[in-house]
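Subject: design request, 249 residues
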């Protein structure tokens, strides 16, 4: 049985179910609710047709104009990607995190989360995205091979050997294509296509941020929050506060 929680905000209530497939995130979220960590915090980052983000402890009683989004609870949670089963459709509850440069394992913030609003995609645009992702496989394989041959590349550059550089590049491209072909091509599932072409979402975030729940009731409230006017830091001009979070028995 999946656990349900209620988020009471100044703009209305949202009911969410937490996925059992992501137990670390589920249990941490329930702990924070029991500890009343979220009460009084704000939806501090709101971007229409993208997502609404909350959970920064520093947002409690934050004065107007204060930069928010870096507050935490002193720990991170290992990524729990259950893909393609759990994905970024509209209403998905996902964990925020720091960027790849400082967080290569894509570990989640211990407290900050977002709810996806996103946009509706056409099947053609999803097909184009599939092609781009598959091309990226080759690019990544090429970059890895180029790093391994960096000394040789520097030597050829120093000698201004354009022909040698071209030949090496051609060789590495061939090797990259062979490496990329070992992995299956990326394809959206029928469930993803159905969701992304009807209710919408943010497919470019899949496999980069952990999805650990979804909205059951109150998507109209989520839409109301995403339409709020914001400042240049995407913070709503009028505070949208989480009054209470509770676990539904």
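Subject: RE: design request

Done. Sequence follows.
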């Amino acid at each position: 049985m999946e656990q349900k929680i209620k988020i009471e905000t100044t703009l209305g209530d949202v009911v969410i179910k937490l996925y059992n497939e992501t137990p670390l995130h589920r249990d941490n979220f329930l702990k924070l609710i029991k500890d009343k960590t979220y009460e009084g915090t704000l939806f501090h980052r709101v971007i229409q047709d993208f997502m609404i983000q909350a959970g920064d402890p520093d947002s409690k009683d934050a004065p107007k104009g204060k930069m928010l989004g870096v507050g935490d609870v002193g720990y991170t949670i290992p990524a729990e990607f259950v893909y393609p089963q759990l994905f970024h459709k509209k209403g998905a509850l996902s964990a925020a995190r720091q960027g790849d440069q400082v967080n290569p394992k894509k570990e989640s913030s211990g407290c900050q989360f977002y709810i996806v609003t996103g946009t509706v995609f056409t099947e053609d645009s999803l097909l184009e995205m599939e092609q781009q992702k598959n091309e990226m496989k080759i690019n990544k394989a090429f970059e890895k091979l180029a790093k391994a041959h960096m000394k040789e590349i520097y030597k050829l550059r120093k000698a201004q050997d354009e022909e040698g550089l071209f030949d090496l590049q051609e060789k590495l491209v061939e090797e990259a294509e062979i490496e990329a072909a070992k992995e299956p091509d990326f394809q959206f599932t029928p469930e993803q296509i159905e969701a992304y072409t009807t209710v919408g979402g943010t497919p470019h975030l899949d496999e980069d941020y952990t999805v650990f729940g979804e909205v059951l009731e109150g998507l109209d409230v989520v839409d109301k929050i995403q339409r709020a006017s914001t400042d240049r830091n995407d913070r709503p001009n009028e505070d949208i506060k989480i009054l209470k979070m509770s676990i539904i028995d």
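The chain has two domains: 4-120+199-248, 123-181.
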